[in-house]
Amino acid sequence: MKAPLIQNETDYDGRTVNSIVRWVFKDMELDGDRVMVKVKHHRGTWAYQGRFYPHARWQSKEVYSWDRGEYVEVGPRVPAGISHLLVCRIGRPGIYPCQTHVYKRKDSPGTWEVADWREALVSITAHEAMHLRQYRTHPKGKRGRFNEVQTEWAAFRLWRDWKSKKN
After folding, report:
1. Of 1-15, 33-47, 50-64, 104-118, where does the model show the most confidence?
2. Closest among 52, 66, 27 to 135, alpha carbons compared
3. How does DSSP assign 123-135, residue by residue?
4. Rounded to an integer, what distance in angstroms lies between the CA atom of residue 166 and that of residue 143?
5. Which pLDDT belongs to residue 105?
6. Apex CA 105: angle with CA 100 and CA 106, to 5°?
7. Residue 95: which domain range?
């Protein structure tokens, strides 16, 4: 299996970011071929937030927005040949430990405490990678093919495995 292309746009250690993203893909048995993972800082106060773009080619063009009298580049750009894009935003130092942001559904694992940025990166990468797996399993499936409860369980399981591996 091929590892995804990883772009670290945070202040956190690049080697650690790369190893965490690769570990998540390996544990989930996901092929990272033609997949890009962008890791960025989250501007808000949440531990993490992410987005899965099933059609990265839509994000491959330079997108500009008018801001204060000039055009500024906005939106993620990806190199040619990338099919899927995962954007993982993690909090800045000082925000951890904190509770996770989860979907309030009865079958979800509930909330858990994220101790640091590494645990946040594991959780959000697992969540968005599960969306990738769902998309690859049902690319033309019905409208509700992205099951958020399933993604939250993936995030919780990998977060738990990461914590036990750390200790």
Report:
1. 1-15
2. 52
3. HHHHHHHHHHHHH
4. 38
5. 65
6. 115
7. 5-166
Of 102, 118, 104, which is closest to residue 161 (Cα–Cα)?
A: 118
**What are the tens digits of pLDDT across the range 17-71?**
999 999 999 999 999 999 999 999 887 777 888 999 888 866 555 555 555 666 6
d(CA 39, CA 42): 9
The one-letter amino acid code at 95 reads I
pLDDT tops 90 at residue 74: no
The encoded tokens of residue 79 equal: 């190199």
The gap between the terminal CA atoms of the chain, to the nearest Å, is: 28
Q: What DSSP designation does 52 have?
A: E
Closest CA to 22 of 2, 51, 38, 48: 2
Domain count, the chain: 1
Rounded to whole angstroms, the Cα distance separating 38 from 16 reads 14
Residue with tokens 């063009």: 61
Residues in the chain: 167
- Note the pLDDT tens digit of each residue in 131-148: 999 988 876 655 556 788
Hunting for tokens 């969540």 — which residue is that? 127
Q: What is the pLDDT of residue 132?
A: 93
